[in-house]
User: Which sequence fits this backbone?
């Protein structure tokens, strides 16, 4: 379980940093093509979906925080395939697709923060606050009140940045919980030789 968790933690970091990088690119260069963004998001969704499904079947204690990964993984894979097969058509639905993707992940991250609270993990409230902020950003994306494409791209970029920071923080909290559970599993034994 220790090796599985380390491997999945590394993959989570890679996916979160990819989302962060895409968000930064969209904020700095908002004139970037929506079709290109759909292709990149499609790859990220596909990778995330495969990762979530594999993680669902392989984690022990840490799996408590990822109990909905099978459903999320299937949805993410289907979204990724759709974005890659029809990027031009998906570009018109980009605010809705990005908003739905972010809001789904954020709601489940809020649930993870509730699980962290139940397990007595410190700073669970920060994870919940980030999840709520991310959900609000995603909700605005679903409403799509933006007049220009550049403003929309900047907002999607900011939403991806907030979501990836939230993912990184949640991952940090879960890693701390896994380390603490390993320490609890250690049994101190003292022995005495009898002559």
Assistant:
């Amino acid at each position: 379980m220790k090796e599985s968790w380390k491997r999945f933690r590394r993959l989570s970091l890679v996916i979160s940093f990819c989302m962060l990088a895409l968000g930064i690119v969209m904020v700095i260069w908002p004139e970037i093509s929506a079709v290109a963004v759909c292709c990149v998001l499609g790859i990220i969704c596909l990778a995330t979906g495969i990762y979530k499904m594999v993680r669902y079947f392989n984690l022990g204690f840490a799996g408590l925080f990822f109990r909905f990964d099978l459903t999320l993984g299937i949805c993410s894979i289907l979204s990724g395939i759709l974005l890659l097969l029809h990027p031009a058509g998906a570009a018109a639905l980009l605010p809705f697709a990005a908003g739905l993707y972010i809001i789904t992940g954020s709601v489940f991250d809020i649930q993870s923060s509730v699980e962290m609270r139940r397990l007595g993990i410190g700073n669970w409230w920060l994870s919940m606050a980030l999840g709520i902020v991310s959900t609000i950003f995603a909700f605005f994306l679903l409403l799509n009140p933006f007049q220009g494409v550049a403003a929309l791209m900047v907002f999607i970029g900011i939403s991806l940045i907030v979501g990836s920071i939230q993912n990184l923080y949640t991952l940090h909290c879960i890693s701390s919980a896994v380390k603490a559970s390993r320490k609890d599993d250690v049994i101190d034994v003292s022995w005495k030789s009898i002559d």
